[in-house]
Amino acid sequence: MLKGRSLVEPGDFSIDELEALFRLAEQIEEDGAYLRESCRGRLLATLFFEPSTRTRLSFEAAMLRLGGSCLGFADPGSSSASKGESLADTVRVAACYADAIVMRNPKEGAALLASRYATVPVINAGDGGHHHPTQTLTDLLTIKRLRGGGGRTLGETVAGLSLGFCGDLKFGRTVHSLAKALARYTGLRIVFISPPELRVPEYISRGVLAAAGVEYQETGSLETVIGGLDVLYMTRVQKERFFNEEDYIRLKDSYILTAEKMEAARQDLIVLHPLPRVNEIALELDADPRAAYFKQARYGMYVRMALLASILGVVSC
Q: Quick one: fold of 10-131+299-311?
């Protein structure tokens, strides 16, 4: 049962709970009327201390499609945080008005702190370079839908797959969360593609993947490995995570996926991206049937609908 539970990191839900959540999301996708109005009278507080488009809008769309309402802010400057209010007090107050809280904060660990003070469930919408668990749910559902089929579970779907992560792997919370979630499954292989300065942290590569027995490799060349991938997860180099603009300028164009590079890829490859895209995927690829990042964004709404309905207790999951 997910009723009343917070989601701070991907491991907060068991594999069986994730499977139930994905089945619910698939049911919502297939039946547009399912769960409509189920959250009538419920309120979701969206507290975004950091810019967001897809995550914030998809949560708001999810709640509205469930018949509920939203309140909150998308700019910390319009909240009492600008006056020096502590995060603990902010979430305590929000919990007085809302039935659940979705929060994005630039500080690692902020979501965990919020979950300890709020009297309602807290959903982590990104805490610095740490975790982004609902993007992970989105990514996993997308892989299951596009590489699964036949009623296969996620575990059955990812067994035997080669998944590549390309770009900013040092600061990319979506990469960290997804890699950590995938480490719970067996039979898959991960390839990390990045410049040396943006390598995936060792607490992920060794502390999580190697400790779980997951095969992985690190390389600086996309061209040499793209032909062996089943899933390619592109990421942007995040300007907001750099302390030195010169380093950002030097690294920002490290990997640009083009139609020419895709000629070496498998015909059934799926290309994912948590978005926003800057220039790491050429616009010409949007017409390629292997480009799945806009489908991925829509799956994000379905899985967030399933998550909200579950933690608010309108369905049993």
A: Rossmann fold (3.40.50)
Using DSSP's 3-state secondary structure scheme, residue 191 falls into strand
Active site residues: 54-55, 83, 104, 132
Q: Indicate if 133-297 has the same CATH topology as 10-131+299-311.
A: yes
**Distance, CA of 311 to CA of 5 (rounded, Å):** 6
Ranges of each domain in the chain:
10-131+299-311, 133-297
DSSP 291: B
Provide the 3-class DSSP secondary structure of residue 96: helix
- pLDDT value of position 41: 96
**pLDDT, tens digit, for every residue of 9-64?**
989 999 999 999 999 999 999 998 999 999 999 999 999 998 888 899 999 999 99
Whether the Cβ atoms of residue 216 and residue 191 lie closer than 8 Å to each other: yes
- Residue 102: what are its φ and ψ, rounded to 5°? -110, 130
- The CA distance from 38 to 20, in Å, is 18
Residues with pLDDT less than 70, the chain: 77-82, 237-254, 317
Encode pLDDT of 217-229 as tens digits.
999 899 999 999 9
Q: What span, in angstroms and rounded, lies between the C-alpha atoms of 207 and 217?
A: 14
- Cα end-to-end span (Å), the chain: 5
Class level of CATH domain 133-297 = alpha beta
* Cβ-based neighbour number of residue 112 at 10 Å: 16
Rounded Cα distance between 12 and 26, Å, is 21
**Strand-pair partners of 7:** 123
Q: Are 7 and 181 in contact (CB under 8 A)?
A: no
Provide CB contacts within 8 A for 241, sequence distance 6+: 129, 168, 171
